[in-house]
Write a structure and sequence with these properties.
With about 260 residues, the protein is an alpha/beta fold. The C terminus is likely disordered. It has a single domain, classed as Alpha-Beta Complex (Spore Coat Polysaccharide Biosynthesis Protein SpsA, Chain A). A 7-stranded mixed β-sheet has the order 3-2-1-4-7-5-8, sandwiched between helices. Strands 6-9 form a two-stranded parallel ribbon. The longest helix is centred in the last third of the chain and has 20 residues.
Length: about 260
């Protein structure tokens, strides 16, 4: 039977927090009336992430691990999970669980009202009530705001938080967008939203109550890499580079 929800959890070197995150996500899913599956996609981890994820999945038929020995980046990993999933709605959540699974409760009515994509935002300019439990430093907020203005200019006008790691897509939207995507890094969030706009899909936004977790893999210089990827998205849109799918689209269901 096709599950209603596929939860995709990309994970790279998350041994210190992966078990707690998965337990929290699993507890939420077990309470739901809809059918579901959970895919933990390991991005070439060099620590005990795979071991802990495999231990967690043991004895849980709705949970499976996809292990790739080569580190390819968050974008590639999310793409791999979305194209291996089978749910009618496909949601990815960052492995740090900064955006709690209960946010999906807010998303459900939007899908019932024909949204194709629903994303969480930490910025109240996107959705009233959005915010962070502990605000980031002034410097990080300034860098983030300036960066987002650049991202809007390049690729996704009108969305103030493209990077929140909690986004859900209908199966139709996912299977149209992700085979076209080609950015493997942090800019992948920008790319899939830009492609959604290009293909005419409806994007709704719900507010996130975001709780920052220690141990982020995002480094200072990654911000600038993301800006470069936003420019690459703009170029790809203008040049027609997205007119052809990539080989990852050939990933088989149930891989």
């Amino acid at each position: 039977m096709t599950p209603y929800l596929s939860l995709i959890v990309p994970a790279y070197n998350e041994e210190t927090r992966i078990t707690a995150s998965l337990l929290s996500m699993y507890a939420y899913l077990q309470k739901q009336q809809f059918s579901w599956e959970m895919l933990i996609v390991i991005d070439g981890a060099t620590d005990k992430t795979l071991e802990k994820a495999t231990t967690f999945a043991t004895g849980k038929p709705q949970v499976r691990c996809i292990n790739r020995k080569e580190n390819r980046g968050k974008g590639y990993t999310v793409r791999e999970g979305f194209l291996a999933a089978s749910g009618q709605v496909r949601l990815f959540s960052d492995a740090d669980n900064s955006t709690d699974m209960s946010h999906f409760d807010q998303m459900l009515p939007h899908f019932e009202n024909d949204a194709d994509i629903v994303i969480c935002s930490r910025d109240p300019k996107d959705a009233e009530g959005a915010g962070q439990a502990v605000p980031q430093s002034f410097f990080k907020r300034l860098l983030g705001n300036l960066g987002n203005l650049f991202i809007q200019l390049m690729a996704v006008p009108g969305i103030w938080d493209t990077q929140c790691g909690f986004k859900a897509f209908t199966a139709q939207a996912a299977e149209a967008i992700f085979p076209l995507a080609r950015i493997d890094g942090w800019g992948s969030d920008i790319e899939v939203l830009a492609l959604a706009r290009r293909l005419g899909y409806q994007i709704d936004v719900v507010p996130a109550h975001w709780i920052d977790q220690a141990g982020t893999h995002v480094k200072f210089w990654d911000y600038f890499g993301t800006f470069g990827e936003a420019m690459r998205v703009r170029w790809n849109l203008m040049s027609g580079a997205y007119n052809q799918t990539l080989p990852i689209a050939e990933i088989e269901k149930g891989h």
